[in-house]
Structure of Major royal jelly protein 1-like isoform X1:
Amino acid sequence: MCIIVKVLVFFTLFVSPIVMFRTPYDQQEYCGELFSQYDPHLLDTFKLEMSQGIERFFLLSYCLACCWPGLGAKSELRVVRQWAVLDFNFPSEEARTEALEKQYFVPGNSVPIDVDVHHRQGALPSRIFVTIPRFDIGRPMTLGTVDENGKLTAYPDYSWHENQGSNCQGMTSVFRIAIDQCQRLWVMDVGKIGDNQVCPPQLLAFDLATDQLIYRHVVNSSAYTGGSLFITPIVDVRPRGPGDCADTFVYAADVSGFGLLIVDIKRNLSWRAVHRYFYPYPSRGTFTIDGESFDLMDGLFGMALSPYQQGRDRYLYFHALAATTENILNTKVIRNDSLLQDPNIDPDAVYAFPHERPSQSAAEAMDQSGILYFGMMDPPSIWCWNTATQFHVKNFHAVAINQETLQFASGLKIVRNSKGEEELWVLTSSFQRVMTGSMSPDRINFRIHAEKVPTILENTPCRAAPKGEGPGHHADIVASRAGHMRRPYRYGSAWYL
């Protein structure tokens, strides 16, 4: 009997009755009773057959989906986890009490921003990583993994977080992370709590096989400003052969310093780059989501790399949060360490697509086929665009639209599972209620969604590229048509002083 039939039979016979229970305790009690009577061998078979990727978060969580919180969401994406407020696992009750007393933990203050997933081989469980930046006090940890009950556990352990900025060897505040094909977790620590720069920014890398720190780069003061906030790291691994991870660059968006940090991992060297397209557009600085409005003049925010082809340079796709444009640059422009002497990028080396999105977008990510996925604010939604086609609304295709569950897609990743399949993972939040102070614990505020990329593409025209045109085709056209006229350029009047 195929696994689908098994699950349908199981769901019909055992899971359906659970909807009648009103409380999680009733559901858990029923699940426990059910599992105690169920054939352990067949249950183990279910687990084995569904352990190779995204499925391990569905049908098995909460008594094989009996308590799956996203069951009723009207979306092409499945809800993996959801919260009204975040809760945390502490190493001891004493540590929790101390965090409450010192206001290191203020219940209801924590806001998740990013998600990434590490699918491990064999029987080892996959891990969902979530970041919680320290916008203010009350966040006991800034990076954690999500357990089956939805609680967050500090990564790699609580000692990295409890210092709250008093020990710069730990983590201060992390907005986003990135897992590369070399099984390294890259962590961009901004070093700020609120607006206070308590530690210098630093880039960390952990070996996911051992959870040990394998790289640390403390950003030189010449590469950031007092207003800098490095929120989005993108990892560019340039292998010469299988398993080669030596030639790696990390690009980090400086959302409020309106710049880009480039870190050459091999040489342990970093520099800053600036360009006018890294700035916000004042006319796009007002956001209205679900009837609530706020102003946020954030610059460079969403970034994604075109697929790697050996011997060729990649495009970096990017946009400001307060913008509706999408831009591109060839990564050879920013990998040039001459920017150490002059951080200003040649204006004609960066290109903007002629057309714009209908509304602002936050995070974005690209799959191996060159399809870009991004969220939009109005309506709250996730879209795809095949980069072989023109960047135009006619080529944007909806993956999911949901006024309630997709309100602000702040984290968006393409993840490869242990079968080699790509998955789309998205973290959404009621960020407008965070900004306006109207967030309530009486409703769901944060969600993690996921779906396999092939399943998504079955229902959209995004997979159909024009004949003979590959990923980045439109970027190639835009770059080749752009005129190149040398002229003086500097950003900021301070350069002349």
Summary: The longest strand covers residues 230-237. Residues 24-37 form the longest helix (14 residues).
